[in-house]
Design a protein that fits this description.
By secondary structure, the protein is of the alpha/beta class. This is S8 family serine peptidase.
Length: 535
């Protein structure tokens, strides 16, 4: 592998960034021909897999953000200014062992006295606010449009077509999963009976020799499961049952025109009623893990011997429960953004999105409000493998092609394999409406009840960039939110390689054509560029 060296020794760079002197013209990696370097062909180790988004492209041949390098060579033991990052998401396990010391506390509110001590309209909002109340399951937005019965709605025809296609697709998946579930369970029962034990191993299955066709079919099924990454038939059953739950949720709640999910008592089409919900920002069930995972990517306590490291080391997470199991309401999102801004957040992460938005103007006005108040808003690009320049994904920051915010960043997802497969197959993209890419596939982070898991989505890529934004705001607090966005986009790694787009192997394009910046986010470069821009 051809070594691509930085232009200045790390010790000198550190002195320039955090000292009082002026900065030199330095950019870290890569400076030339990164695309000619050998690709990593070996499988990631467990340690690499659980931390790949923090690794360095040159050193590790993995398309991470050079976070560990930034801490080792630039940040070291320094502490910057505390930065509040609002996570607009599902509930967050604020008592998680890897998050409990980084949760924002509203010091102007007296806990649990039933009063609005700080006069912000939200009673006892100690760690944030819950705009969902006791609810969680919700319809998708286009299902709400159909359920309203208003055929004059401008999106009614599009919603109807989307519903008919999606409902049949998910009904077909349910039938497939039900059949597979029955087959796996039956095979497990046959093997358990044949082997005389429930907890049999791969070796036990491999050693089976039988003239019984049923036993041999069960063995074949088990070996197929093992070849697809399952460690046991019990794991296979758990995996398929988890998939079935998601499918049933989609049919019973998200696509059910008769389901009534909202329990807050307000009218989601009336923006004048703003103070609803409650102060319980925690997850409602263990399955409500999305917000906890996102929060960990941003700010899980670093190097504490526990499961994950966040990108930013001097952050307080403000929990704003906004996103249900289904599509979020525009009203909730708009109010959540305003709540975060008004209560001191300097970075907002929005790992959600949808293709229908009846009150998109409310959300855009809130995004513009965040920009006016010097707040960075980071948004996930979406997981539909689509070009968002052509097919809409909300929330967005433009009206008729004109941007209404200079602090909004939309993020696509990378996979942990540099080369043609580095763009996650599910990731949306867009030369005009996606700003940058960051690690988003197979990301390891916190989940409720002191657990950890690997998840994938642009939902995981956005908080990676939100973490970089928090780092810049922490160490260079004189930079405006607009400057922070500029630094993140300008300091990324510009890669010349061609990539598979949308998981379609016949669609090969230059990586540079998939986003406005044409780059991958890089924490190390961002801190160096921020130092140059800072006073």
């Amino acid at each position: 592998m051809k070594t691509i060296k930085t232009l200045v020794a790390p010790l000198f760079i550190s002195a320039l960034i955090f000292g009082c002197g002026s900065t030199a013209d330095i950019i870290s990696t890569p400076v030339e021909n990164i695309d000619s370097s050998p690709l990593k062909v070996s499988e990631l180790t467990e340690a690499e897999a659980q931390n790949w988004g923090h690794l360095d492209l040159v050193k590790d041949t993995i398309p991470g953000m050079s976070v560990d390098k930034a801490y080792a060579e630039l940040i070291k033991n320094r502490k910057g200014k505390k930065v509040i990052v609002a996570v607009l998401d599902s509930g967050i396990d604020i008592d998680h062992e890897d998050l409990d010391d980084v949760i924002w506390t509203n010091k102007d509110e007296i806990p649990n006295n039933g009063k609005d001590d700080d006069n912000n309209g939200y009673i006892d909002d100690i760690h944030g606010w819950n705009f969902l109340g006791e609810g969680y399951n919700e319809q998708l937005e286009y299902v709400r449009i159909l359920a309203s019965g208003d055929t004059s709605h401008p999106d009614y025809a599009r919603a109807k077509a989307e519903y008919e296609e999606e409902y049949q697709k998910w009904l077909g998946r349910k039938q497939q999963y039900d059949q597979i579930h029955q087959q796996i369970k039956r095979a497990d029962e046959v093997l358990s009976g044949h082997l005389g034990k429930d907890n049999y191993t791969k070796e036990d299955v491999k050693a089976i020799e039988s003239n019984d066709e049923t036993v041999n079919q069960a063995k074949q099924m088990a070996e197929y499961m093992f070849s697809n990454g399952m460690d046991s038939m019990a794991d296979a059953i758990e995996e398929i049952e988890s998939g079935l739950k998601s499918i049933n949720d989609r049919l019973n709640y998200n696509l059910n025109k008769d389901f009534k999910g909202r329990v807050t008592g307000d009218d989601p089409d009336n923006f004048s009623t703003k103070y609803y919900g409650n102060n319980n920002v925690k997850h409602s069930t263990k399955d409500e893990s999305h917000g906890t995972h996102v929060a960990g990517i941003i700010a899980a306590e670093r190097n504490n011997g526990l499961g994950a490291n966040g990108v930013a080391n001097n952050v307080e997470i403000m929990a704003v429960r906004t996103v249900p199991n289904g599509d979020e309401y525009d009203k909730d999102v708009a109010l959540a953004i305003r709540y975060a801004v008004d209560n001191g957040a300097k970075v907002i992460n929005g790992s959600f999105g949808k293709s229908f938005s009846p009150h998109s103007d409310w959300v855009r006005e809130a995004i513009a409000y965040a920009a006016k108040n010097d707040v960075v808003f980071v948004h996930a690009a979406g997981n539909d493998s689509k070009d968002v320049d052509v097919e809409p994904n909300y929330p967005d920051d433009n009206v008729n092609g004109e941007e209404i915010s200079d602090t909004y960043i939309r993020v696509g997802a990378l996979a942990p394999k540099y080369g043609s497969q580095m763009v996650a197959s599910f990731s949306n993209y867009g030369k005009n409406n996606v700003d940058i890419f960051a690690p988003g596939a197979k990301v390891y982070s916190t989940t409720p009840e002191n657990e950890y898991a690997t998840k994938g989505g642009t939902s995981m890529a956005a908080p990676a960039v939100a973490g970089i934004a928090a780092l810049i705001r922490s160490y260079f607090p004189d930079l405006t939110a607009a400057q922070v966005k500029q630094v993140i986009l300008d300091s990324g790694l510009a890669i010349n390689t061609k990539v598979i787009v949308g998981g379609n192997t016949s669609d090969i394009r230059p990586f540079a054509d998939l986003s406005k910046s044409s780059k991958m986010a890089n924490a190390y470069n961002a801190l160096i560029m921020a130092a140059k821009m800072s006073k």
